[in-house]
């Protein structure tokens, strides 16, 4: 296809991506270098019957003027990156000198918002992803073995947790684990502990979110593996039978190697999706015990009276770097594959 | 064709059936439970004393005289004007799906048919874009959109969702187009078509399954989005999902939680129907990327 | 006039050379076959003629037009593809009518033209079916019908028979030959099957690694292969090739000595065809234990292992020998071809 035709075909799509995906990344980098204007104060004298007092007030008109002139705020260099809301190297240094044990150091670092969010995000990504793959694989094996007639309905119900809006799915579960909901009450009865609440302790909140993540994502892995199972080469399977392989050996030496590329695909998709975990934290109202990088950005933009653009932008840039680190192995592999083909 | 060697021994079969049954309960029960509960009053839905109340609706009978009540739905749809969000969602999802598919088919076709090296780079860029957390992009839009005065409107949100959706759409349609033999459009061109005519007359007629599948996923993305819609839309332009989220803050008071429950069930219902009718396409769509990639 | 000239045509992708200095005149009404193994550049050459690939260097002339920069649709050619490229959503009739529709041929002529084409490819009973309801051979004929319906100046056929089973291939081959002789349209035909090439072609172009190896009539190419590549590619079985040395008119290789050859001394490869040599009781140029005996039906094939080379000779169908038994074959100088081992080129006989 000549370059000109190619460009004509891809232009709308490319333009949309450049304007609303690539450009915002640039915008985020730019915004992260600025910080909100300092408040302009004026002295206002109010005189009453008991004499005059001078008050310091924010000069709204002057602030507006400043904002209009420099909407992004004043230049701050990399300051935002290093403040206590983000990388906080100063604080880490202090904590390092003060804390005696690794545990103490770790606990204190966990109180810094960015690290707290980062650790939760990583934990979520790297716990949920393998669990999803394993659970999805076993569901696929199980569904593959059931009679054809009920396969359709089983697949139908299996798809639901994935198709339903993440926020809505997490709300549905949230109401059920409420101490008055069926699961919450059931757990209290099970452990004979009427004060047990999944929402109260950080550990239990984390576990709840992980379980939600696995529940939400397992159908995806299941569907991919299930479709893969339909394509397992029958010849190889039969020759393994003739060679005397047991059921498990057949799975181990024929099915799993065949599904391995699919597992890589699922892992890649899951890493990308889980790294941006966000909606369940809103749905489970879990922000007190667990925040993710995405949530941090969201709360900067939504939480305060005026959006903290600089802070959100700095976190966004750091998150983007995280995504790139996460994708590097994949990119390197794709690059090698591509070169081998060319 | 059931061969004797494929038959499972009984214990294994029981184990595997039990496991699937367990999974089905985990997958479906929450929705059934919530849908059922949405027709009760709050003291039944959150029943402190006895969980069977949620099924029988003891409190619901006491308060309304019947075991089922539509009060939650009435409150959500009428009092809280959930119907407006439904209309907004309909507009947004329809536009996003149509525009995404238009852009995506053109771009995906070009990527599948051009042999030059830059197609690889475009696909890789799309992969990276696909991995970007949406909220980081939103934090890039917010300030410029305020400045340009285009924040809060549905068209802005639509084009943003289209753009965010493009990487995925491109990848998916690209792999669908790759599965269509090149011979088809080449013979159309030799027969006298321009490239665009060949695309329209020879390729698109056989692409419908791929377009429908990709369209489903574009629909789901737009329908399920919370990040973009919650941050880029004003209160009155809100779509369903951010509207439900806003119920949570304002409805902690007694009785209002049921509004949120009713709204949630209302939002799940269309998805339910969607899976019912398009199960096969969803399954094939999820695997399309895997088989090729 | 539908003469087709390729002037020093080259195709490169980056460093990879797909076609190198392809230079050829194709006469009006000629049936030209491009023959070679897969990846030899034959399809690329055809696709450049069709306008589906850009020409990196050189010129393609169709009649008196230089067509390098023309779109495929403006070149007045038609093409039959290996996987047919039928429009699955259209019936046979509509498939064949498609070129007329997009070329804005007046509507009132369509039916007559389409029906003529359908009759020529004998698809009258199937004209309202869709491609999915047809067999492979029928689909191939739809593609042929679509190619001939608008009477183009040049037909291009890209391995049109390779997706058919062996029996169908023979009958469709005959049909193509028949169609071409009726329509008298210049045809370029790409194949990797040397039998197709021999049976169909007025002239054959043997290609390898992007370069032309030999151009000639089927007989010329069979009887006088220009180099070892052509010798080993044409004929079934291919020509026996044995490396060795020539000293004073005597060729010596592993297990074979042939005298009475006229060529300068040096490293040579000796070639002869299996059907030219004979089994003999004594005094043969080859005397070695038999490697295999294969029955072909109309003949038997005896083979020996001489060094690394597998050498076969065709003999009477009732000839029998055991594996490992000593058998001799006579390979007189008259049936032998000599190739320079270094360059692979044939030496004049």
TrEMBL record, chain A:
Matches recorded under InterPro entries: ABC_transporter_permease (IPR051393), MetI-like (IPR000515), MetI-like_sf (IPR035906)
GO BP, one annotated term: transmembrane transport
GO cellular component entries: plasma membrane
TM spans (from-to): 117-142, 154-177, 204-229, 250-272, 308-332
Alphabetical keyword list: Cell membrane, Membrane, Transmembrane, Transmembrane helix, Transport
Topology versus the membrane: Multi-pass membrane protein
Domain of life: Bacteria
CDD domains, alphabetized: TM_PBP2
Membrane keyword on record: yes
Record-linked PANTHER family: ABC TRANSPORTER PERMEASE PROTEIN (PTHR30193:SF45)
Entry similarity comment: Belongs to the binding-protein-dependent transport system permease family.
Full protein name: Carbohydrate ABC transporter membrane protein 1, CUT1 family
Native organism: Loktanella atrilutea
Automatic annotation (TrEMBL), chain B:
Membrane topology, from the record: Multi-pass membrane protein
TM stretches of this protein: 12-36, 86-111, 118-146, 158-180, 201-223, 257-278
Keyword Membrane set for record: yes
Keyword Transmembrane on entry: yes
Localization (cell): Cell membrane
InterPro entries: BP-dep_ABC_trans_perm, MetI-like, MetI-like_sf
Any one biological process term the GO annotation gives: transmembrane transport
CDD domains: TM_PBP2
Keywords: Cell membrane, Membrane, Transmembrane, Transmembrane helix, Transport
Occurrences of domain ABC transmembrane type-1 (ranges): 86-280
Superkingdom to which the source organism belongs: Bacteria
Gene3D superfamilies on file: MetI-like
GO cellular component terms given for this protein: plasma membrane
Family as reported in the entry's similarity comment: Belongs to the binding-protein-dependent transport system permease family.
Protein's UniProt name: Carbohydrate ABC transporter membrane protein 2, CUT1 family
Species, as recorded: Loktanella atrilutea
From TrEMBL, chain C:
Keyword Nucleotide-binding applies: yes
Keywords tagged on the record: ATP-binding, Nucleotide-binding, Transport
Entry superkingdom: Bacteria
ABC transporter domain: residues covered: 4-234
Keyword field contains Nucleotide-binding: yes
GO biological process, one term: carbohydrate transport
GO CC terms in record: ATP-binding cassette (ABC) transporter complex, substrate-binding subunit-containing
Listed GO MF terms: ABC-type transporter activity; ATP binding; ATP hydrolysis activity
InterPro entries: AAA+_ATPase, ABC_transporter-like_ATP-bd, ABC_transporter-like_CS, ABC_transpr_MalK-like, ABC_transpr_MalK/UgpC-like, Mo/tungstate-bd_C_term_dom, NA-bd_OB-fold, P-loop_NTPase
TM stretches of this protein: none
Pfam families, per the entry: ABC_tran
Family listed: Belongs to the ABC transporter superfamily.
Protein name: Carbohydrate ABC transporter ATP-binding protein, CUT1 family
């Amino acid at each position: 296809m000549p370059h000109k035709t190619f460009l004509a075909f891809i232009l709308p799509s490319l333009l949309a991506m450049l304007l609303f995906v690539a450009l915002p990344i640039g915008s985020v980098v730019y915004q992260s270098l600025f910080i909100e204007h300092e408040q302009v104060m004026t002295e206002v004298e109010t005189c009453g019957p008991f004499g005059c007092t001078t008050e310091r007030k924010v000069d709204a008109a002057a602030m507006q003027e400043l904002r209009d002139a420099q909407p992004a705020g004043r230049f701050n260099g990399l300051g935002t990156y290093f403040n206590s809301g983000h990388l906080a190297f100063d604080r880490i240094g202090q904590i390092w000198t003060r804390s005696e044990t690794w545990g103490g150091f770790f606990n204190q670092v966990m109180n810094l918002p960015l690290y707290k969010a980062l650790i939760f995000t990583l934990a979520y990504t790297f716990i949920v992803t393998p669990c999803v793959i394993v659970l999805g694989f076993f569901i696929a094996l199980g569904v593959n073995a059931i009679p054809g007639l009920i396969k359709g309905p089983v697949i139908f119900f299996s798809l639901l947790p994935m198709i339903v809006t993440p926020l809505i799915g997490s709300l549905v579960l949230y109401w059920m684990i409420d101490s008055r909901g069926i699961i919450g009450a059931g757990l209290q009865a099970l452990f004979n502990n009427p004060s047990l609440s999944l929402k109260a302790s950080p550990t239990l909140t984390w576990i709840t979110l992980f379980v939600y993540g696995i529940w939400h994502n397992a159908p995806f892995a299941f569907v991919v593996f299930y479709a893969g199972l339909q394509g397992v080469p029958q010849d190889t399977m039969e020759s393994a039978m003739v060679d005397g392989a047991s059921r498990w050996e057949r799975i181990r030496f024929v099915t799993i190697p065949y599904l391995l590329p699919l597992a890589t695909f699922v892992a890649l998709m899951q890493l990308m999706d889980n790294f941006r975990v966000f909606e369940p934290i809103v749905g489970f109202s879990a922000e007190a015990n667990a925040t993710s990088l995405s949530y941090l950005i969201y709360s900067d933009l939504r939480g305060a009276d005026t959006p903290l653009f600089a802070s959100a932008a700095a976190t966004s840039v750091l998150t983007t770097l995280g995504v790139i680190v996460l994708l590097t192995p994949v990119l390197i592999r794709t690059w090698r594959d591509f070169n081998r083909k060319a | 064709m059931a061969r004797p060697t494929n038959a499972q021994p009984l214990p294994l079969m029981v184990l595997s059936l039990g496991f699937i049954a367990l999974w089905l309960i985990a997958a479906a029960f929450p929705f059934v439970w919530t849908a059922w509960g949405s027709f009760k009053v709050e003291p039944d839905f959150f029943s402190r004393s006895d969980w069977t109340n949620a099924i029988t609706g003891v409190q619901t009978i006491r308060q309304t005289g019947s075991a089922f009540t539509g009060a939650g739905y009435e409150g959500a749809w009428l009092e809280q004007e959930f119907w407006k969000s439904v209309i907004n969602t309909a507009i947004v999802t329809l536009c996003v799906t149509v525009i995404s598919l238009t852009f995506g088919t053109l771009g995906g076709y070009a990527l599948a048919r051009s042999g030059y090296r830059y197609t690889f780079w475009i696909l890789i860029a799309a992969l990276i874009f696909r991995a970007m957390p949406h909220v980081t992009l939103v934090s890039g839009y917010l300030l410029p959109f305020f400045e340009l005065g285009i924040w809060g409107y549905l068209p802005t949100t639509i084009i943003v969702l289209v753009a965010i959706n493009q990487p995925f759409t491109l990848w998916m349609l690209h792999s669908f187009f790759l599965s269509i033999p090149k011979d088809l459009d080449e013979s159309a061109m030799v027969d006298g078509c321009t490239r665009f005519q060949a695309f329209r007359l020879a390729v698109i007629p056989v692409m419908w399954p791929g377009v429908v599948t990709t369209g489903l996923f574009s629909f789901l993305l737009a329908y399920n989005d919370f990040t973009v819609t919650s941050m880029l839309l004003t209160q009155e332009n809100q779509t369903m999902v951010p509207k439900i989220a806003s119920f949570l803050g304002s409805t902690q008071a007694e009785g209002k939680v049921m509004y949120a429950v009713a709204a949630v069930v209302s939002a799940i219902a269309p998805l339910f129907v969607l899976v019912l009718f398009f199960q096969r396409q969803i399954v094939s769509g999820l695997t399309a990327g895997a088989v090729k990639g | 006039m539908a003469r087709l000239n390729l002037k020093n045509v080259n195709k490169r992708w980056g460093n990879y050379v797909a076609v190198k200095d392809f230079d050829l005149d194709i006469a009006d009404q000629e049936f030209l076959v491009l023959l070679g193994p897969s990846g030899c550049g034959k399809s690329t050459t055809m696709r450049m003629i069709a306008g589906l690939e850009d020409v990196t260097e050189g010129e393609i002339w169709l009649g008196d037009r230089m067509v390098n920069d023309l779109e495929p649709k403006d070149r007045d050619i038609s093409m039959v593809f290996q996987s047919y490229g039928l429009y699955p959503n259209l019936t046979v009739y509509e498939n064949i009518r498609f070129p007329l529709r997009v070329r804005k041929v007046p509507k009132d002529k369509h039916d007559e033209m389409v029906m003529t084409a359908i009759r020529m490819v004998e698809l009258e009973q199937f004209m309202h079916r869709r491609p999915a309801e047809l067999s492979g051979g029928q689909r191939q004929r739809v593609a042929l019908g679509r190619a001939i319906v608008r009477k183009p100046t040049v037909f291009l056929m890209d391995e049109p028979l390779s997706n058919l089973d062996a029996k169908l291939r023979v009958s469709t081959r005959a049909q193509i030959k028949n169609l071409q002789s009726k329509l008298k349209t210049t045809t370029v035909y790409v194949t990797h099957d040397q039998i197709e090439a021999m049976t169909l072609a007025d002239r054959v172009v043997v290609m390898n690694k992007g370069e032309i190896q030999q151009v000639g009539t089927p007989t010329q190419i069979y009887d006088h292969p220009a180099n070892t590549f052509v010798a080993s590619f044409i004929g079934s079985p291919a020509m026996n090739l044995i490396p060795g040395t020539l000293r004073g008119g005597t060729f010596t290789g592993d297990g074979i000595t042939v005298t009475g050859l006229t060529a300068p001394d040096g490293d040579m490869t000796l070639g002869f065809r299996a059907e030219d040599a004979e089994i003999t009781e004594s005094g043969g140029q080859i005397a070695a234990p038999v490697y295999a005996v294969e029955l072909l039906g109309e003949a038997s094939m005896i083979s020996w292992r001489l060094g690394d080379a597998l050498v076969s000779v065709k003999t009477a169908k009732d000839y029998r020998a055991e594996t490992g038994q000593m058998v001799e074959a006579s390979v007189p100088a008259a049936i032998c071809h000599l190739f320079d081992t270094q360059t692979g080129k044939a030496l004049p006989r």
